[in-house]
Amino acid sequence: MDKKFIEDIVADVRSDYETRAAERRQFESQWQLNANFVIGNQYCRIGVKGDVEDCEKDYYWQEREVFNHIATILETRLAKLSRVRPKMSVLPASDDDGDVKTAKASGKILDSAYNKLDVNGLVGNATMWSELTGSAFYKVTWDVKGGRKVGVDEKKKPLYEGDVRIDVCPPYEILPDSLMCQSVEECTSIIHAKAVNVEDVKRIWGKDVKPEDTDVVSISEIGVIGGLGLASAVSKIGRDKKQDRVIVIERYTRPTQQKPDGELVIVAGKTLLYYGALPYLNGTDGERELPFIQQNSINRAGCFFGTSMVERAIPIQRAYNAVKNRKHEFLNRIAVGVLAVEDGSVDTENLETEGLSPGKILVYRQGSNAPRLMSPGSVPADFTVEEQRLLDEFVDVSGISEIMRSSTVPASVTSGVAIQMLIEQDDTRISVTAENIRRAVKKIAQHMLRLYRQFALTPRLSRFVGEEGETELLCWTKSDISSDDIIFDTDNEINTTTAAKQSMMFDLLKAGLLYDEDGKLSDAMRYKILEVFGYGGWERTQNVSALHVSRAGKENAAITNKVPEASEVDDHELHVAEHVKYFLSHEFEERCLRRPELKERLLNHIREHKRLKNTEKLLEGEGNV
Predict the structure, then answer these.
(1) Is the separation of the CB atoms in 444 and 166 below 8 Å?
(2) Which whole number is the average pLDDT over 53-72?
(3) Element (H, E) at 372
(4) Can you give the pLDDT at residue 539?
(5) Residue 42 to residues 48, 67, 111, 160, 541: CA-CA distances in angstroms?
(6) Is the distance from CB of 45 to CB of 52 less than 8 angstroms?
(7) Helices 97-117 and 416-455 meet at what angle, rounded to 10?
(8) Which residues, in sequence order, are CB contacts of 533 under 8 Å at separation 6+?
(9) Sign for the pseudo-dihedral over CA of 158, 444, 437, 191
(10) 10-15 mean pLDDT
(11) Positive or negative CA dihedral for 376, 382, 385, 389?
(12) Would you say the C-alpha torsion 591, 595, 599, 604 has a positive or negative sign?
């Protein structure tokens, strides 16, 4: 690329970034206001220029306390949504036995990668951002320096096998090409802009760039709130200038007719760091797609960014603070009193400083009227009525009732059915947000499998917990991932709590639906019941048949390297059935094309099982005689 082309592409990307940032400015101000209200800086507003500014006191004696209900609402929603961690499996591409096995292997690969990358922690972080601002984003890419170290290159630099990388991006970093797009799938291009230290740019891309003044949203200063004679400090969320950083702008563009592989341009300052096609085959049927996944708290019609419950609760919080503070001002007047003093009759400066302290000698001018306390009246009942009405409105707007926030049942509700209905109503209100999280997690799983299928060229080892509870290792390559059709193994966790599952289990036991035809509870069913009650590791009693099937599967996998030995303790019927199923599978046929001796090796093993089975029958017959 010549110098003129580089200058043009850098100028185009920076101009595009500035245009999108200006269009998104109104949303940034609202996100900043939301963050201030959550941390307790609630005497601020969005000014005429779109910046968040402080609201000054009208009088020095004015009460400015904060009674933060928004923070408790946010914490309650986050606690409720922390249960949304769905379990998933991979649907086979077909009914072929090979596809079924590779689908199971894909599920195990997915489970191992989830634990290794701490996806649950990333989902929790993203949920915090989506509940605060309305939207959060996942960026699923491939890290060439991830995974295990496999060697060194000719320059003695370490080489790694590579692994999936998942980054949680706040909405401050994401700029779509149009704010009218409803989702990432509708966007033609997305810009990911982030303030990065110049030393990190040198380490990652190997280029020196000059630092520039960058605006970052952070805790910039401390504010003061409080009432008459009392004050407390509160943090402020504002924009701060950083001198040692540079804005790294990554523009991802979908494939077009002119550019069938899409386009990725990375610019830092006036330096071009990367220019090329989209590097990831993360779309359906191997297509190149944008590596971003969106998670909204509440979808907003006709808008890219979602909305949050914090934004809806801000007007109620302001009204509640005003009512409480005006009420306290009335109480201050009642407690302290308001003095009426004739002009020139007393030393007003001393009276203003010391007040009417107990035992004070008040000297006033002879012939004048003595100072007197004015009648303060009483606090109007309207304040108490309005205070309760605003508390009820918090519940109506947020969907978080007092049962969830304070873990107490209202005194007026005594029926167990009524309490259960209140809890279900809370779950219904928050289930929309829970479904958004489940959809995002499902897309993350699909992107992960597609990236593994693209880049996992060498054999890898994944560790996971098997069906019997023991730790297993799986050796796999990209050919073991034949499908990325993800399905959920669990229903919405918000609608099904642990207590509800346990209650349903008791009902099923009473109805006799979990017993076999002999009226007995099998070992496998007993283990599943204990698992529902949280005692899955208490009793590891497994179905013997399941253990035999698992062992036969391991023998099938090991047939490539050695001839497994049939044991006297084997259930030969189960082993023979599993081996025959594997013998007829498409996977084994492909192996036999490369190594024909495997067919005779497996047949000899099946014959050995049948021989031992016939021997056992003969011995049983002699014993009966």
Answers:
(1) yes
(2) 85
(3) strand 372-373
(4) 45
(5) 18, 9, 43, 49, 57
(6) yes
(7) 100
(8) 502, 505
(9) positive
(10) 94
(11) negative
(12) negative
**Residue 621: exposure state from Cβ atoms within 10 A (0-12, 13-18, ≥19):** exposed
Query: Is the pLDDT assigned to residue 511 strictly greater than 50?
Result: yes
Q: Is the pLDDT of residue 541 over 50?
A: no
pLDDT digits 0-9 by tens, 442-470: 999 999 999 999 998 888 878 766 555 55
For 176-240, the DSSP string reads: ES-TT-SSGGG-SEEEEEEEEEHHHHHHHH--------EEEEEEEEEEEEBSTT--EEEEEEEEE
Distance CA 74, CA 138 (A): 21
Residue of 99 and 197 predicted with greater confidence: 197
CA distance 304 to 171: 11
Query: Cα(611)–Cα(287) distance, rounded to whole angstroms?
Result: 53
Q: Report pLDDT for 165.
A: 94
Q: Using CA atoms, how far apart are residues 337 and 331, in angstroms rounded to an integer?
A: 9
Burial (CB count <10 Å: 0-12, 13-18, 19+), residue 301: exposed
Helices 572-583 and 544-558 pack at an angle, to 10 degrees, of: 40
SS3 139: strand
pLDDT, tens digit (0-9, with 9 covering 90-100), for 99-116: 777 777 888 888 888 888
Q: Name every residue whose Cβ is closer than 8 Å to that of residue 405 and which is 6 or more positions away in sequence.
A: 72, 73, 76
**How far apart are the two ends of the chain, measured CA to CA in Å?**
92
d(CA 112, CA 132): 30
560-578: b or e for each residue (b if 16 or more CB lie within 10 Å)?
eeeebebeeebbbebbbeb
Residues 549 and 558: beta-carbon distance below 8 Å: no
Distance in angstroms (rounded) separating the CA atoms of residues 564 and 558: 7
Query: Mean pLDDT throughout 543-554?
Result: 77
| Tally of CB atoms within 10 A around 264 | 19
pLDDT higher than threshold 80 for residue 493: no
Q: 463, 112 in Cβ contact below 8 A?
A: yes
Q: Radius of gyration of the chain from Cα atoms?
A: 34
* Cβ pair 159, 147 in contact under 8 A: no
